[in-house]
User: Fold this.
Amino acid sequence: MQQFDFYLWLSGLWDWIWGVLLWFWGILKWFVIWILDVIDGIWALVALPENFMFLVRAILMPGLIFVLFALIFTVWYTRKIWARVQDRRGPTHVGKYGGYQLFADAIKLMAKETIIPLKAKRWMYRILPSLLLVIVLLTFAFIPWDPYWNILGAPGSAFPDLSVSLVLIFALLTAVPVFSLLIGWVSGSKYSLIGGFRAANNQFASEIPMVISSVGPAMLAGSLSMFSIVAAQTSIWYVVLLPVNFATFLVASIASVGTFPFDAPVADSEIIFGWRTELSGIYFTVVYFAEFAEQMLYSALMVALFFGGFNGLPFLPGIVNFLIKWLVIYFLFTLVTSSFYRLRQDQIVHLCWKYLLPLSVLNVVLVMFAVVYIPGLLPLVIGG
Amino acid sequence: MGFVGNLGDIFRILKHVFRQVFRRPFTYFYPFEDRPYPEATRGRHIHIREKCTACAQCVRACPVAAIRIDKEDKKFEKDCALYFDYTRCIFCGDCVSACRFEALFHTPIVDISEGDREDLVYGPDKITTLDRDPLEWRGRRFR
Assistant:
């Protein structure tokens, strides 16, 4: 009987090791080939002209980069208007007319230490501020900037406009106070919790009037798509027919953002900084940007719903028309926010539900009667 | 009043604020642009050495001993050098009223902050003149 030959076994070991190495190499090669195939597939998708242009539009022009630059400009613009209302000068020193002040502030804030409170739920606390910014920036995809050059809904592109983009914008924006409430909750501080509940209260008060106000344009255009609503305003801007709706939308959107007359969620003299009390460093920066992005978004919505969006001076590109109106509406927005003192919680609900809601419904009903009984108005309204 | 009255108030407020935006800011552009001070402002001093007689009455009058006199440093017939220590000076004006030869005055310049404590001791070269380097900001020269 053959004995166990140790040396023979030892010489076979090299074969075995070599086999294992080959096996690992096979796995590695397979993995690399798989990754390259995936990249190839993505490139093949991207290289299609309509997909490539969609990416350019989504990332560059009316998309992310443009919105971020607009955000930077908006912070400067707001600070200047606030300063002028208060007889000050605003930022002057960094850059021309203080244009780079925001970069200085952002660098300062990012360089600060991020303090996470002991009672905070760390994982949620880290992720929620960025989610807030993301969800606010996401809604910019549905704004019709231009007859052609917008993210969704360019004619002939692979990504058509959604038929319910107006509803979708409101659906996404409803999540904002949820994030405020969650941030207030996970911060583990009583001030932030009170602020979070106040933010929820603001949204509770302001959302119904805002949606009802936007029913007017949607009804006149006969569509819930932002693009169709804007395209229907070639003959007449809806602010002419629905001025009260515009006013109620403005007030309700300010209440929804939670800036000045309705800044109970972040009332600095009562609850330290509301639901943002415990945020520091980069988290505070992100939330600060999200607030301004929300103001920008509501101004853009007002332009699209009531001021004819890209319709305007015919010799200008549509996006330039939109931006001009956007600046004006944003100025109006900031003017209203800088003029009034803070309302109490019950006063906010009182105002929104007892005044804004009936007024917006009243204007919609009046316009319905006008469209029915004034001959020749209907073709103007639906865009002729 | 009631609803319509409140609405009128709101629009009056908005009108006022709208006008406010296009008005000139009330604040001065401070380090580069200074507010006009009245003539009698007790700011930093100026020492006119032509009229000084080295009588040292200003040094005697100073309640906080902020003035040091150097009688050896003569530029004219009987003048002296004065060293004003603005870390001590309380701008009471006693030295100016003690001077009977009209050689010491206050000026309306009040922004005399410096980076070093030693720079706040105004020697004869700084106290006898109002000249200083003009501030420059984006090509514009101020003061």
About this structure: The helical segments of chain B are 2-21, 57-61, 94-98, 124-127. The mean pLDDT of chain B is 85. The longest strand of chain B covers residues 81-85. The longest helix of chain B spans residues 2-21.
